[in-house]
Automatic annotation (TrEMBL):
GO MF annotations in UniProt: S-adenosylmethionine-dependent methyltransferase activity
Keyword Hydrolase recorded: no
Domain Methyltransferase type: 53-142
SUPFAM superfamilies assigned to the protein according to its UniProt record, in alphabetical order: S-adenosyl-L-methionine-dependent methyltransferases (SSF53335)
Protein's organism: Kitasatospora cineracea
InterPro entries found in the cross-reference section: 23S_rRNA_MeTrnsfrase_RlmA (IPR052939), Methyltransf_11 (IPR013216), SAM-dependent_MTases_sf (IPR029063)
Listed name of the protein: Methyltransferase family protein
A Pfam family recorded for this sequence: Methyltransf_11
Signal peptide: none
Length: 254
């Protein structure tokens, strides 16, 4: 028997959203993956580094999954949201990585040229001048970014038509990196399919990925959620489109 709208919404509203894992969506949403395999590439970059910094590490899931055997002798990570910082500390400290609590929009609390590798998966903010500052000459920034126009279909369902920001378009980010003195090595973008199979999956996703609908709450958007539930009941899934960018830049050696 199909579960009721209220049951689906109430379950998702009560489920924990700390960390940066998405296992709660298993069987309820499907996400097309980028072709390049970021976590494997991250492990390769870490294994070749002497000192590395992972920015906005979330709960440390991706960094830990890249393999502690690949960690360089100096491995640090930052995270600004206290619940995630606590999770990352518990996960990464036993693996030899130091977690530094630091807001995403604050200057990095590290010396100039401290790292030969800076990484990040899905950073909420990208401060290229700060990244360039903490990179040693010849060092690299390697990341997977959430690209521009990600989930505009989902955002528009709740917010209506709105001007789509361009700051996260990959061409714009490449220009910002160059303006900070970095040489762009690669900037690959892919558009990917995301399917939600029930309204509870959407509720949980919006609670976790808060920038999709910035003022989201179940009470505020209950009628739109009900309309979405009815649409999924008719059509089987709600489809949105993600954008992912594999970004690599290098600080000149001289």
């Amino acid at each position: 028997m199909d579960r009721s709208f209220d049951a689906l919404v109430d379950e998702a509203a009560a489920a924990p959203v700390d960390g940066w894992g998405f296992a709660w969506l298993d069987g309820r949403a499907t996400e097309q993956r980028p072709s390049w395999g970021y976590q494997r590439l991250l492990g390769e970059r870490l294994a070749a580094a002497g000192a590395a910094l992972d920015l906005q590490t979330g709960g440390g899931e991706v960094l830990a999954g890249a393999g502690p055997e690949n960690f360089p002798r100096t491995m640090a990570a930052t995270e600004g949201w206290p619940p995630n910082a606590a999770l990352a500390t518990r996960r990464l400290h036993p693996l030899g990585a130091v977690l530094v609590a630091s807001p995403a929009d604050a200057p990095l609390p590290f010396a100039d040229g401290a790292f030969d590798l800076v990484t990040s998966r899905h950073p909420a903010a990208v401060d290229f001048p700060e990244i360039a500052r903490v990179l040693a000459p010849g060092g690299s920034y390697f990341a997977q970014h959430v690209g521009g126009r990600t989930n505009v279909e989902l955002s528009a369902f709740f917010l209506g038509p709105f001007p789509v920001p361009t700051a996260r378009e990959h061409e714009v980010e490449a220009g910002l990196a160059r303006a900070a003195g970095l040489e762009v090595v690669q900037c690959r973008n892919e558009r990917l399919r995301l399917e939600f199979s029930d309204v509870g999956a959407v509720v949980w996703f919006l609670r976790k990925v808060v920038w999709t609908v910035p003022d989201f709450s179940v009470d505020r958007y209950r009628e739109r959620l009900r309309a979405l539930h009815e649409r999924i009941e008719r059509e089987g899934v709600f489809v949105s489109t993600m954008s992912r960018t594999l970004f690599e830049a290098r600080k000149p050696a001289a």
